[in-house]
Amino acid sequence: MKEFVSSIIVAFSLTTHLAMAMPQLWIWRFSVATHLVGRDGFCLEMSSWFYKGNYIPTRLSPCDKHKKQTQFRTVLQDGTIRPMNDRYCLVLYVLVNKFITNVVVSECAKEPNSNKKWTHKEDGTIVHIGSEMVITGNLDYVTLQRNKNAPSQSWKATESLTPMVVNIKWLENLCLQSTEDSNYVGLDGCNSENKSQRWALYSDGTIRKHVNRNYCLTSEKYSGRFVIVSKCEDKPQQRWDLGAKDMS
After folding, report:
1. How many C-beta atoms lie closer than 10 Å to residue 11's C-beta?
2. Topology classification of domain 25-148
3. How far is the first Cα of the chain from the last one, in angstroms, to the nearest whole number?
4. Backbone dihedral angles phi then psi of residue 223, each to the nearest 5 degrees
5. The pTM is what?
6. CA-CA-CA-CA torsion for 39, 45, 49, 53, nearest 10 degrees?
7. 64-122: pLDDT as tens digits
8. pLDDT digits over 201-238, tens only?
9. Which of 41, 47, 87, 175 maximizes the CB count within 10 A of its CB?
10. Cα distance between residue 78 and residue 16, in whole Å
11. Do domains 3-19+161-246 and 25-148 have the same CATH topology?
12. Domain 3-19+161-246 adopts which CATH fold?
């Protein structure tokens, strides 16, 4: 092991740690059929039960290419997000007296534009234009919350339903490598056969050990500003933006 990787100042030519980044907004320009993949690699899905008024709840569920009717979302140029039946789209549903705003599916024609328009940031957050809050995914329900740069607020529109596994290059073409005797990461010569150098890139912005995907690359500013590996949690210190030039 050649050296420990220290702090956000030194760590990564990874584009930037998202908790410190200020990416520009972009709006979907093309009509394409995709899955929206979010927290822990789960897909945004319509639930099988209904609210009063025929609002269909949404949740996170294991991605399944055969569940096209419930997991597909068609991202349109008009800023709406729709399932395969484009009569419906994602909208807000406020639970009265509970101060919770759920993301649900409703008939588009019945909803005002202010309730059904979205933009997608380069960092993966999906922003509701009217409220400026972002879609936040949990296994049992999907809500709108203020942006905390958490992994649960990062989404990728893709047909690739499994995380990419790569080596991550850094200084002098050395690769990030997890250590056997500590939670710190180091640098060593790149080797695609070395399991300690293989990292899984999740749509929620987390970078995880390939051999144990419960552990995420973490910016640990309270321990001498090191980049470490720790148990995956829904916190900004575990959300990253990795450029293609950093992978092999």
Report:
1. 21
2. Trefoil (Acidic Fibroblast Growth Factor, subunit A) (2.80.10)
3. 19
4. -125, 55
5. 0.81
6. 100
7. 887 777 777 777 788 899 887 778 899 988 876 566 788 999 899 999 988 999 998 88
8. 999 999 999 999 999 999 876 654 678 999 999 999 99
9. 175
10. 30
11. yes
12. Trefoil (Acidic Fibroblast Growth Factor, subunit A) (2.80.10)
Structure tokens at 15: 């584009």
The amino acid at 201: L
Which amino acid, 13? S
Please answer whether residues 123 and 23 qualify as being in contact, where contact means their C-beta atoms are separated by less than 8 angstroms.
yes
Domain spans in the chain, listed from the N-terminal domain onward: 3-19+161-246, 25-148
Residue 157 pLDDT > 70: yes
Strand segments (E) across 54-146: 56-62, 72-75, 81-82, 88-95, 100-107, 118-121, 126-128, 134-137, 142-145
- What are the structure tokens assigned to 5, written together? 């990787």
Q: Are 58 and 71 in contact (CB under 8 A)?
A: no
